[in-house]
Specification:
alpha+beta, five-stranded antiparallel beta sheet, 2 domains, 2 helices, single chain, SH3 type barrels, 103 residues
Length: 103
């Protein structure tokens, strides 16, 4: 049985991220786009476990990776997910902390 990301050490996470990158590259070469998206999301989740949630503070505003000019303000953290609001939205949204970039 595979380990969960939360059970892996930093070294194991880095190795898993490397494997996922290789799989994504192969899937892209084969034209399996759906698989590429799934693997990239797994990479984002694994990367979140390499970060310390304590470095992300309630009320702070971040940019979101790969989303142009979109800001996100943290309302609260739950594990490796930051819950909050995108600029101009009243709908709560959650992002893995690995997708947040300090402004």
């Amino acid at each position: 049985m595979d380990k969960r990301f939360s059970e892996m050490t930093k070294t194991e996470l880095q190795a898993e991220i490397g494997k996922l990158h290789e799989k994504a590259q192969k899937a892209e070469q084969l034209g399996i786009i759906n698989e590429v998206y799934v693997l990239k999301r797994k990479i984002v989740m694994a990367e979140a476990y390499l970060l310390d949630p304590a470095d992300f503070k309630k009320g702070e505003t971040y940019n979101i990776k790969d989303e142009q000019d979109v800001t996100f303000t943290i309302d609260y953290l739950k594990g490796t997910f930051a819950w909050g609001y995108k600029e101009g939205s009243n709908e709560p949204t959650a992002y893995p902390i690995s997708l947040l970039v300090k402004q």
